[in-house]
Specification:
seven-stranded mixed β-sheet; 18% strand; Rossmann fold; globular; 2 domains; six-stranded mixed β-sheet; alpha/beta
């Protein structure tokens, strides 16, 4: 019991010194560390490599390795179904078969980064199969950033080190110990790839954490990146099915938008008449954007995309609605969307909930941008999935922070 109390006391005294220690190395020391583990395991082009995960990321890793003159001997995948499966010219093995053939001599590169996937669970699976050399795909980004990045928030850690002052400033803005621990954990993970340091995710309360937010009967909720209505459904549950003023949903992907409208048709008339839907992207200015459709929540703005979508700033379309709550999950366009909402944020000071894992700098640039528009915001971080996904920053006016 005494040890537990000491641990609690230690957590409650969590300070910026903890975060500062993450940056003890010089940039040159970090650059050296970025290459060491990969150099130790992949010594020559003849080192046998197995890519664990035969999805889009795994195929991207294969393409990059081949560019480097490295030729993996196969994929391993939990969804392996065929004895003769071949993808991009190499065999797909079941994890058990791959381990039976290559556990002692191959390097297994875990190349999955997807909703609800746990790196630690996959790592243990391979350990239990007696695989000796297991690494995360991010080590390839660390050594070969020009080939394997960009990929969401991942960059070599020396690039993060350059932003130490901004990162430390964000830490000091945070309003509770849980947020400080979560922010520290995500920064430390990006610097060292220590997956054990990541916080346990809350899979239930994304965008509406009970300890921070209660939905008001006067709420005007703007859902940017509404997907198939998943956040809309949560909002309606929190609002007790109708105790709100208005909801406005933005979703640029036509397939997702169709699912969103289909879900809305299942609602009763009293609720439906208070919801508006726009098949638009949100951004910093009006115009047409190219868009890549991924058939998932991961569709995104892409200069090389095959689909054109209309983009509009929230300041131009909803400012007269006097929004009270803005949510952004717009696949890497969050900062642009916030810039297009600056008048709303300054004038009405709404609650703002923003995903900050799509780009490397979002985790510090977005809270600092919000702070520049309203210095009275209270800031909180919360985590809603494994492996660094679904990290959300909340900016909440003092009088809207829930008092329990």
């Amino acid at each position: 019991m005494r040890n537990i109390k000491k641990l609690i006391a230690k957590n409650n005294n969590f300070t910026d010194n903890n975060l500062g220690k993450v940056f003890n190395e010089t940039v040159n020391q970090i650059k050296q560390r970025e290459k060491e583990k990969l150099n130790r395991l992949i010594k020559t082009e003849k080192t046998p490599l197995i890519i664990f995960g035969a999805g889009n990321l795994g195929r991207k890793i294969l393409k990059g390795l081949r560019y480097l003159g490295l030729n993996p001997i196969g994929f391993a995948d939990n969804n392996y179904v065929s004895l003769d499966a071949v993808i991009d010219g190499i065999r797909v093995y079941s994890p058990k078969d791959a381990a039976h053939k290559f556990a002692k001599k191959a390097v297994f590169i875990i190349s999955i980064w997807a909703p609800h996937h746990s790196y630690l669970k996959t790592f243990k699976q391979l350990q239990d199969l007696k695989c000796l050399n297991i690494i995360p795909f991010q080590l390839l980004i660390w050594k070969y950033p020009d080939i394997f990045s960009p990929h969401y928030q991942f960059v070599p850690p020396h690039e993060i080190r350059k932003h130490k002052k901004k990162i430390m400033k964000v830490f000091k803005l945070l309003s509770d110990q849980k947020s400080r621990r979560e922010f520290y954990s995500h920064i430390r993970w990006r610097m060292f790839l220590d997956y054990n340091t990541l916080p346990k995710p809350d899979f239930v309360n994304q965008y509406f954490p009970d300890e921070l937010i209660s939905v008001s009967r006067d709420e005007v909720f703007i859902d940017c990146g509404a997907y198939n209505g998943d956040t809309l459904k949560k909002f309606l549950e929190k609002s007790k099915q109708g105790n709100f003023k208005k909801i406005i949903c933005f979703e640029p992907d036509p397939n997702n938008f169709a699912m969103l409208r289909n879900y809305a048709e299942s609602l009763n008339q009293k609720i439906k008449r208070k919801i508006l839907f726009y098949n638009y992207a949100v951004g910093s200015k009006s115009g047409e954007l190219k868009f890549t459709i991924n058939k998932t929540t991961g569709s995104f703005v892409d200069p090389d995309g095959q689909t054109s979508v209309k983009s509009i700033p929230l300041d131009e379309i909803v400012i007269d609605e006097r929004p009270t709550f803005l949510k952004f999950d717009v696949e890497g366009s969050e900062l642009a969307a916030l810039r297009g909402s600056s008048n709303i944020i300054r004038q009405y000071k709404p609650i703002v909930a923003v995903c900050v894992y799509h780009k490397p700098n979002d985790i510090w640039e977005i809270p600092l941008y919000l702070y520049s528009m309203n210095r009275d915001y209270q800031f909180y971080f919360r985590t809603y999935d494994h492996d660094g996904l679904e990290l959300v920053i909340y900016a909440i006016p003092k009088d809207r922070v829930r008092k329990i």
